[in-house]
Amino acid sequence: MIIRSGKMNSDDTELYYEASGSGEAIILIHGHSVDRRMWNRQFTKLAESHQVIRYDMRGYGLSGMPKEGKDFLHAEDLHMLLRGLGISKVHLVGLSLGSFVALDYLSLYPEEVKSVSVASGAIYMDEDETDREPLVIPITEVAAHKSEWFEQLIGSCGSHREEIAKELREMINDWTVWQRIHREPKCLIGAPLSARLRMISNEIPILVLIGSDDSRGSIQSSEKLISMFPHARRADLVNAGHFSNMETPDAFNGELERFLSENVIEMS
């Protein structure tokens, strides 16, 4: 498999990306505290039939860091990346934070979205959550924070947690923790997202993947999206938790590929 990699620059950031395959474009959007590597099990598989792009969001992996006090939107960063790659329409796949970014993108650029697949969360449950003052930790507490955060994440996984523990720990160890040692700028649309999504007139295909062992909050967030869009397809993944794409990759890939082939490609 040939992997093309590079960095896309804008006035205030630099995004690292990797691409492979050809055909309709799929973008894979990672979760908080991890990076593009969480998609290892999807990147190779999907590249057999699509052009697949995975990237590190601003503040993660090999991409540039935010500037404290300067707001931005991850979705706008993604738009810059796709425009730079010459991609005008895309299938969005996000997990956890990546799901919020995918839905932000849908609300901003619905005409450029062919489908949206989200896992481990989707819509804000607490309308006031995004207005709370972020907790900033001293740099001396970074190691302890990483350790506590890893335990929290691995605890939200299902029965396959031990199989992904090493890979997950490596990504968290590589995380700069920029978002916890600085006052993170506003980078998501937040609570107004629900109202923006309800204004979309066309029924863009939506897949909602739910790990049976994920946290109750993540499951409720996903179910809220389904209630907003009755045409959305729900896929329950047994023995999977918050990182369902890593924990049960065969089931995750199967649901995603079936969704793309049955509900998207023929409609494009």
Q: Which percent bin holds the helix content?
A: 25-40%
Average pLDDT works out at: 93
Strand content: 15-25%
Distance between the termini: 26 Å
What kind of sheet is the major sheet? Answer: 8 strands, mixed
- What coarse outline follows from CA principal-axis ratios? globular
Uncertain stretches:
none
Oligomer: single chain
Order of helices and strands: EEEHEHEHEHHHHEHEHH
Helix/strand class: alpha/beta
- Total helices: the number is 10
The strand line-up of the biggest sheet is 1-2-4-3-5-6-7-8
* Number of E-type strands: 8
Taking Cα atoms only, what radius of gyration do you get, to the nearest Å? 17 Å
Give a verbal description of the structure.
Helices cover about 35% and strands about 20% of the residues. The two termini are about 25 Å apart. Helix 2 crosses helix 3. The chain has ten helices and eight strands. The chain is globular, with a radius of gyration of 17 Å. The mean pLDDT is about 95. Helix 8 links the parallel strand 7 and strand 8. The longest helix is centred in the C-terminal third of the chain and has 15 residues. With about 270 residues, it is of the alpha/beta class.
